[in-house]
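Please decode residue identities from the backbone states below.
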């Protein structure tokens, strides 16, 4: 740190030396010299008495002293005008050293009054100090070809020596070495001229006009004119010669703070109080440097110690000075030379060069030398702009408009201004220039936690306790500044059980910093350091705010181990507190305010806010940016179960016990879900997965069903199908999955298998059917509040035809019914009810099917035919009856009919098929047009429908509607099923005493004709079919009478004709 300040100190020394006016020759006239200098000494100057032409005459002591000063043995202590003050104020051992006496009296006059004559003598002595031959001898070597032959021109010797001192400190090419004794003397002269700018002859003559222009009303003395000129150094009207002289003096101040009279005076007591005093025997030692003073006193301020307001004001001025002019820091001049020449030339004024170097340091303009980077970091610590943004003039000017609009509620100069600016980064209120300057500064503040004064104030106790930190300006190799914040945030999110947590105030500040750092990956030192290679490899084109971190998360599996670890830790942290994602929070503000404000207001976020955003991802307040951000976070979570805070917390022990060595969240969910399902099916006494984990597992399963990308295996299997069949369908809301379901017959084999397995799971557990639950959410609340989750679809099917049923929900229920009827495996209730009947009656179909193929409704068609034969078990019969009733109303629920009759329906029944509400019109149309059907497969399906309708009138909705009154009057006592009510109506039709409704009579007669035709074109396939045809035939009584007469005739003939065989005797039987 001291190295960063060496150049400014040297520059200040050079300025001070140039202020000393050399006096020529041993024969110079003292009176004349005094008269010349008197013209430059302002009346009313501080301390010294004004000099005038008669001064020597009125004050013989003073006048006589001047000639003796040039003699080799002359001593200030021998002067009568100062003897009393010297005896009273200065130790006797210093009397033989004129500079020691001068320094003693100069220091003491701030505390006590010194005689006016003595003051006058001291002022003249300082003015003529550089007549010492040793200055001239050094100048001859150091300043060859630089100064004129008249080596005693106004201040030129001292100015040249000062510049030589600066060149040596900056290690400039051609710099001439100066001996330490000479350096010490030059610096002491500069210090002695620090109170009155008239004493710096070179600067005085260089800045006379500028002083009149900028500082006309500023009184000389106590360094006031210096400070005024420093403040105007970069004004356009400032002359270049004056600016150069001021810069040299500032460099000297940087090397030794005592060269600034005002700073040394204001901070004298504080320096002593906090043990920051310089060693007087080592004027260029570390303790004398401006950097050490600033760091020492800033450390006291940050520790809550009291530093006088006057001293803090002076420190503020010099911190601003360091930020304005990079050349005041010799380390930056030395180590950043190539960066300045290559990227930052011509930007010297108002801190622009320094910010340019910061931009290079960020990596925005190529690589930077490590030494230059360290020099910049050191300078930022010395200037400490984090404590007051006004110290950074470039930032102050760039962000003034933003501060006035976005941060006007914060007191001017408050450290929270920088935090406020960060909160408005990438918002409409931010301007581009401010954004650049802010990120450039924050890049370096982020690399040392101490440079954020609010964080340091709230967390210094926690840092000392948990991270073993030292004082504000002390560093440790074991725990460098950049590692402290990492230590703090690791403790910020510890649970009570884990112990060693941060205090509440410190945690709030850590969260604030995390929120701000999430805006730019370069604000996270550890992340940038470990991921530099991966950022270049995978994310070079991601230049928008927040995109780099998202890119790293997307390529998590591809990252090198160090980078993957830090990205994983940060993502895990985000899962607990998603508010760290500041850009996402801004994008989602409308949704948060409307739906999640209660969760967002909680001080401690444990994943609730993200859960709320996921739950409301499809609300009208959700904008595209927020939806994309939320989905991205969901996609990242599937890479590792640790990235889902609630799931990790609820299931960590279960994962370690049941699913060890599994990392991906999807695989963990599948593992745990399979365990739960197996325990349930096997009726295990105790579930192996804990209750809290099962509850969270359900949440994760439902969330994964919302977007196909959240199920990587399914997504990878169906990528090509999505591209070909669902290209214009948006992800989310399970829309892509629904699209694939609707185009199931066109899917590739691999995708088809995955979709079928997904449907199988959804039918067993309808709560995982995202589209069904979303579309029918309100209907489920209305009709199925008391139903278990697994029975939701069954409940909806039962209430499908209610007048209160929402049309969209009804349409969705129909879709699911169509899906269930394509394969008995997709209907868990039917599968359970018919588990014995299916292998008994439909085994040939099962034998032909492959494990991965769907049965396209063949098994259900087989069971329908057996239902007509009345051969099914009671439970299976009940389920098939329901399917028959449903498919009789809507032909789409009969997959085999759809497969074989699609063309015939389009040709014969287009109007009926186009009807919005299906009430059996298409089936009736096909029955009526049976003779016109050309395709044998379709004709067979229609004949099967006719056969099924004989078994139960409910299977024929058109006939049932037409005959509803007649059934009520004629067949009320007859239970439905097994063709009983149909037989009752047939008997009523033949009974001339019974008068049926005309429509019922007509429909019954049509059915008889259809059955007669069906019997001709589709003869019985076996005895059972023949018996069924006889029992359901309109001529049943006639047929049965004929059959009975035949059997009776055979019996009579047997009685009359006797035995056909020979009788066997008893004897033969007894043998």
């Amino acid at each position: 740190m001291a190295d960063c300040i060496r150049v400014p100190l040297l520059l200040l020394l050079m300025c001070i030396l140039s202020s000393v006016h050399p006096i020529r020759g041993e024969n110079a006239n003292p009176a004349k010299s005094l008269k010349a200098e008197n013209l430059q000494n302002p009346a009313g100057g501080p301390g010294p008495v004004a000099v005038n032409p008669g001064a020597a005459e009125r004050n013989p002591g003073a006048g006589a002293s001047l000639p003796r000063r040039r003699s080799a043995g002359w001593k200030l202590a021998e002067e009568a005008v100062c003897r009393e003050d010297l005896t009273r104020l200065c130790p006797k051992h210093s009397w033989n050293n004129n500079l020691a006496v001068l320094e003693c009296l100069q220091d003491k006059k701030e505390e006590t009054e010194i005689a006016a004559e003595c003051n006058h003598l001291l002022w003249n002595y300082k003015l003529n100090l550089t007549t010492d031959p040793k200055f001239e001898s050094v100048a001859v070597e150091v300043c060859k070809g630089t100064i004129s032959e008249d080596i005693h021109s106004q201040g030129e010797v001292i100015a040249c020596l000062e510049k030589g001192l600066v060149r040596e400190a900056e290690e400039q090419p051609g710099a001439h070495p100066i001996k330490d004794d000479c350096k010490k003397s030059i610096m002491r002269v500069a210090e002695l001229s620090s109170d009155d700018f008239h004493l710096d002859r070179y600067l005085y003559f260089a800045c006379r006009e500028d002083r009149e222009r900028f500082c006309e009303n500023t009184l000389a003395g106590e360094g006031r004119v210096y400070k005024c000129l420093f403040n105007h150094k970069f004004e356009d009207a400032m002359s270049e010669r004056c600016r150069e002289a001021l810069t040299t003096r500032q460099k000297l101040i940087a090397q030794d703070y005592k060269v600034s009279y005002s700073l040394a005076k204001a901070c004298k007591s504080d320096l002593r109080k906090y043990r920051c005093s310089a060693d007087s025997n080592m004027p260029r030692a570390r303790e004398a440097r401006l950097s050490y003073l600033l760091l020492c006193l800033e450390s006291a301020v940050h520790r809550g110690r009291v530093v006088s307001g006057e001293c803090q004001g002076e420190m503020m001025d010099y911190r601003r000075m360091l930020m304005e002019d990079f050349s005041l820091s010799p380390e930056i001049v030395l180590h950043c030379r190539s960066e300045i020449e290559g990227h930052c030339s011509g930007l010297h004024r108002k801190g622009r060069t320094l910010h340019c170097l910061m931009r290079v340091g960020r990596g925005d303009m190529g690589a930077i030398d490590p030494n230059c980077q360290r020099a910049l970091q050191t300078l930022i610590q010395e200037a400490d702009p984090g404590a007051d943004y006004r110290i950074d003039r470039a930032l102050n000017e760039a962000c003034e408009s933003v501060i006035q609009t976005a941060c006007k509620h914060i007191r001017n100069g408050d450290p929270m201004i920088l935090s406020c600016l960060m909160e408005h980064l990438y918002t409409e209120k931010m301007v581009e220039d401010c954004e650049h300057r802010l990120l450039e500064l924050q890049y370096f503040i982020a690399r040392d936690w101490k440079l954020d004064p609010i964080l340091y104030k709230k967390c210094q106790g926690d840092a000392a306790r948990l991270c073993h930190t030292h004082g504000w300006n002390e560093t440790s190799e074991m725990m460098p500044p950049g590692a402290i914040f990492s230590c703090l945030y690791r403790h910020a999110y510890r649970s009570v059980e884990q112990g060693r947590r941060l205090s509440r105030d410190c945690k709030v500040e850590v969260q604030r910093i995390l929120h701000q750092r999430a805006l730019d990956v370069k604000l996270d030192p550890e992340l940038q350091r470990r991921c530099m290679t991966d950022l270049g490899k995978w994310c070079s084109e991601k230049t928008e705010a927040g995109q780099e971190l998202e890119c790293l998360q997307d390529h998590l599996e591809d990252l090198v181990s160090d980078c993957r670890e830090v990205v994983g830790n940060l993502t895990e942290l985000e899962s607990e507190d998603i508010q760290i994602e500041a850009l996402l929070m801004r994008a989602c503000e409308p949704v948060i305010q409307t739906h999640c404000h209660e969760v967002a207001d909680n001080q401690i976020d444990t994943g609730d806010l993200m859960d709320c955003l996921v739950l409301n991802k499809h609300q009208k307040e959700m904008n595209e940016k927020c939806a994309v951000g939320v989905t991205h976070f969901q996609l990242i979570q599937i890479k590792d179960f640790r990235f889902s805070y609630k799931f990790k917390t609820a299931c960590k022990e279960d994962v370690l016990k049941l699913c060890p060595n599994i990392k991906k969240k999807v695989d963990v969910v599948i593992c745990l879900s399979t365990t739960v399902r197996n325990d349930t099916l096997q009726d295990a006494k105790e579930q192996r997965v804990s209750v809290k984990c099962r509850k969270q597992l359900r949440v994760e399963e439902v969330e994964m069903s919302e977007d196909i990308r959240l199920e990587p295996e399914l997504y990878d299997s169906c990528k090509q199908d999505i591209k070909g069949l669902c290209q214009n369908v948006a992800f989310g809301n399970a829309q892509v999955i629904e699209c694939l379901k609707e185009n199931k017959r066109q899917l590739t084999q691999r995708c088809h298998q995955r979709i079928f397995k997904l449907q199988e799971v959804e039918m067993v557990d309808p709560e995982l059917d995202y589209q069904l639950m979303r579309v029918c959410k309100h209907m489920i609340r209305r009709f199925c509040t008391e139903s278990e989750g697994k029975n939701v679809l069954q409940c909806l099917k039962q209430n499908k035809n209610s007048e209160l049923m929402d049309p969209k929900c009804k349409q969705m229920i129909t879709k699911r019914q169509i899906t269930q009827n394509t394969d008995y495996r997709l209907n868990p209730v039917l599968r359970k009810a018919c588990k014995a009947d299916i292998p008994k009656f439909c085994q040939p179909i099962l034998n032909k099917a492959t494990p991965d193929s769907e049965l396209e409704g063949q098994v259900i068609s087989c069971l329908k035919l057996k239902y007509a034969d009345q051969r099914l078990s009671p439970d299976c019969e009940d389920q098939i009856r329901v399917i028959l009733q449903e498919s009789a109303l809507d032909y789409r629920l009969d997959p085999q009919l759809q497969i074989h009759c699609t063309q015939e329906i389009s040709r014969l029944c287009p109007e009926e098929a186009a009807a919005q509400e299906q009430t059996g019109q298409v089936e009736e149309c096909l029955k009526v047009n049976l003779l016109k059907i050309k395709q044998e497969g379709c004709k067979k399906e229609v004949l099967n429908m006719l056969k099924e309708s004989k078994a139960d009138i409910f299977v024929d909705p058109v006939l049932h509607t037409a005959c509803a009154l007649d059934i009520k009057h004629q067949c009320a006592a007859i239970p439905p099923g097994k063709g009983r009510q149909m037989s009752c109506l047939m008997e009523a039709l033949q009974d001339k005493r019974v008068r049926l409704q005309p429509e019922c009579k007509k429909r019954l007669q049509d059915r008889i004709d259809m059955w007669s035709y069906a019997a001709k074109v589709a003869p019985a396939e076996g005895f059972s079919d023949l018996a069924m045809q006889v029992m359901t035939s309109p001529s049943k009584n006639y047929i049965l009478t004929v059959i009975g007469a035949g059997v009776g005739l055979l019996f009579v003939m047997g009685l009359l004709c006797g035995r056909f065989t020979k009788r066997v005797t008893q004897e033969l039987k007894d043998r």
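Observation: Residues 1036-1057 form the longest helix (22 residues).
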